[in-house]
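Protein 1 of 2
SEQ + STRUCT:
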Amino acid sequence: MLLEQAMPEFRFHEVHAVEIATNAADVFDAIRTVTLDEMPLVKLLLGFRSLPSLLRGRLGRLPDIFRRSHRPLLGAVLSGGFILLAERPDEEIVLGTIGRFWALTGAASPKIADQEAFRTFDQPGYAKAAMNFYVTNAGAGRVRLSTETRVLPLDSASSRQFARYWFVVRIGSAVIRRQWLSAVKRRVERLSPQMK
């Protein structure tokens, strides 16, 4: 699994999956094209996450992801601080970011150029996060689409801060990932009704 290569060590993680009656290529097309508008609950949760920064005037306006919510969510995530760490067509895609996720006002994230910069980053006060979408054959014309998120705080203080943050946001994080998987499934089934 590419996620294992990109981020073998982690302290926090979550995994979610769904089965879809289709093929891997259609699932990957849907991963690339599903939009935030197809996930109203995710839009609401991300809006709540942006609220402290908006109230303090740090963002000045709604983040780009909301103003362009009709565009593919994967592209918005990649233009909003995540980078593509690895990809195997029609099987797995891995994204990564580094930040102080526990900071309510959205502390600036260091710029990372590629998987090597992500792998070697070790500055205290930050945490690394990687997530994937992974497709496997489930038999009988079905595939299993899963997403795993891994987080590694880079020092003990960051680990304590992230643990408190994770306690609060873990349910919302799970909802976001499940909604993303459900939106992919709905899109595939809508475009390929004969595959239901």
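Protein 2 of 2
SEQ + STRUCT:
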Amino acid sequence: MRLFRLAALYFAIVFGTGFLLGPIRLLVLVPRLGSRWAELAEMPVMLAAIVCAARWIVRRTAPPLPRRSWQGVGLIALVLMLAAEFGLVLQLRGIPLAEYFATRDPVSATAYYLSLLAFAAMPAEFARRQRR
């Protein structure tokens, strides 16, 4: 249960950041830069949110968890992120899953998928660094 609570908190921080940035990207950046560049411009901010959230959660957790547990936190948070993305976001946009994948820009989609991998891996990485 502790792993799920930590994963849910990690997910909530990062998803909340993305949820706040979404309207800015859609209303300000997309009309000026286009979808690809707007998504790519948002990516460093989201990666910073991932790093800050992972570092904060690892440092604030007492007693410390084993590294393997942090891998579980990252994977649970990833599942929550994908569920939110494919559930909530697709509902808000009103498109089916197949259309979502078919209409994604290949460059920004690749960057997004890599950021999801970083999101899943970051808690374990900071736990490893903290033990040094």
